[in-house]
Description:
Elements: E1 17-18, E2 35-39, H1 47-54, E3 60-67, E4 75-83, H2 86-96, E5 100-101, E6 104-105, E7 107-110, H3 114-119
Antiparallel strand pairs: 1-3, 2-4, 2-7, 3-4, 5-6
Amino acid sequence: EKRGETPPRRERSRSPVREGGGEESKPAPEVDGARLYVGNLSFSANSDDIKEHFSKFGTVVEAVVIMDRNEPGRSRGFGFVVFKSKEEADEALAKGDGTELMGRALRVSSAKSREESRGLRSGPPGGYGRGAPRDR
Length: 136
């Protein structure tokens, strides 16, 4: 850097915060269809809890509870589990939906890619442009 120059700005990540600060090992390579969304988690559940719960259905490659950005240490109530194979994920989907973990009935479904889930939204981000202006 030259004197008087400002250092380049670092881009801020807009992705959800992963438990453990995000400096974990690189994400495991995924098999198509082997990633599941797990919802209705207890706010005290962590990645180890869901990994242990879902390991009875097959080999869990990765288990992540998504943490709240605004309240560090607090879960957002959902996470993702990646299995070694699509067959194991299918079994976990069939048998794991509705099972109880920490007093809550889990909602399990196939995880959508970010591109798929973002494609459902329409309009500008941030909630602008909702409806016509009101007459006063």
